[in-house]
Structure formats: C-alpha cells, structure tokens
Write the structure tokens for this entry.
Amino acid sequence: MDTVVAGALAAFTVDLLIYPLDTLKTRLQAPDYATRFPSGRGLYGGLYQGVGSVIIATLPAAGLFFTTYEEAKSLLASSGSPLANAPPALSHMLASSTAELVSCLVLTPAEIIKQRAQVVNKQADRNASSSSTKSSAACPATTAAGAAKEVLQHAQPGEPKAKLAKETVKHAADKFPIYESLRERLGKWAGLKAGTHKEDGGVDDVRSSEDFRRQASQDETSVAAEFGKAGLVAGGSAAIAGSFAAVVTTPIDVAKTRIMLDTGADEAKKPLGVIATMKDIAVREGWKALMKGGALRGAWTALGAGVYLGSYEAGRLWWRDRQQRSKKA
C-alpha cells in the first residue's frame, strides 16, 4: 500500500507540474508543426489540452508500475533468484522493463489521446472556423473527447509498439539502472540511514542496533529530516538519470510522436514502425530532426523525475514508518 499511494500521488503531482513543457515538446515534434503553428502563433496557448486523459490514467498506471517494480526488484535480488549474484544494474533493468510493460497497458491509449489533443491550435481553428473550404480531413480534434473519438476510429497498429519501445528503452536501458546506482552512492555519501539497505525497507530495520529507532521515536524532527534527506537523494539521482535517458532516447520519442499523431487520413500511406519512422524522418528532414525537442525534453524530465521519485521515496518511507508505529502502539 505504501508503494501504491506514494507512487500515485507523486505521479499526479508531476504530471500537473510538467504538462505544459510536455505539450511544447510534442508540438515541436509534430510533422506539420509549421502548418499548425505558423510563425509560432498559438504555440503557447492551451498548454493543458488533453490533461484529463492523463490524470485518469496516471493514478492506476503509477500504482501498477511501482508495485511491479518493487516486487520484481526484490524477487530478482533474492537468494533463490538466478540473478542473485548478478550486477544490480541487470536486476534493475529487468524489473523496470517489466513494470513499464505492465503500466503501458493503461498509459498507451491515454498517451495517444493526450498527444493528439496537445497539438491542436485552437487559436488557428477559431480564425479558420468561418472558412467553408476547410476540409474535414485537415480539421484536428479540438478536445480530448474529440481526440479519443479520433483514436477509436483511426487507431494505427504501430502506436502501442511505439509507446512500449520508447518507454521500455528509456526506463530499462538508461534511467533506472543509473538512478539506483546514483541513489546508493549519494545515499552513502550523505550518511543516509533510511532506504539504503539491501531490502530497501523502512526506518525500523536500517540499523543492526535499536539506537536510532529509540532516538527517532522521541524526536519527530529527526525522523522528518531523515525522510527529507531520502527524498533529496532520490530526487537528485532521478534528475541526473532521467535527463540523460531523455536526451539519449529522443529519436525514439520523435518517432513515437509522429506515429501517434498519424490519424490514418492518408490511406495511401502505409503505417511505419519505430525504426522505419526514424529512417523516414532522417531521409526527409535530416538527422537533426530526430533530436527535435531533445533539450526541452531533457530539462522537463530532470525536473519531473526529480520531483516524482524524490517525493515517491520520501512518501513511501514515511507511510511505511507510520504503519509500523501504528502496529506497535
């Protein structure tokens, strides 16, 4: 329960915080950016378009991700696991990949709806609403509900694969192995007592002796300071790992955005997979196009990952400690 509550609340907070930056990134990566936002008009308007679909999906998806991740990580690190003596990075990679695959079952439909709503230029739509020459094929959905209807009508076979490919690579190959390694190193450097032992549990069992627990039970400030330190260490580690992973996986993210924004209006155009889409972008627009929004994505991912995993770690430890206190009371 500590994992589900802390993960869901952290995800909800971060989604609201960084959503405008995510919207800008999506608009910059749109294949028809110049047409949708001529001379940048309307680029900064409606930055929370489509946020409703994300809020609905985020809470269950975050709970699924962290529950699966923590359970898989513990299982893979257990003495009976074939990977018990393997490098920790391998366990973290497999655990995060599994967790991401599970959470994407919920997130993928919401992500498609969100991105199609994000690229709508309502300012341009209002200016062109009186034009009778505007074709229905060129008229994008103007609300999340309209985007959802469009998704159901024109779902492309590559969309789920694109989402899974981008998120799995980002979390498995880069983010979480680096995050866990940095968190352990920074935690030891900062003298962190909570959340750095093998089982990664609560304050009760972080020392072989009972000294810290007896002192902490009399001093609420020290407990709060320890949880705050755990959050700062986790947040700093996540910011570094997240920004690196975001920049490295930007080409896959650009391809994912293009696939998800494809409504299938052009029946002559054959749907492409992630690799084929990346090659097509490179040929048509040059290799630099694969890094569109990379700097912005790296910045908001550092902010989002730092707040997300920092608040998750502090909240998880606090929740577990409260449960342990109530059991002993």
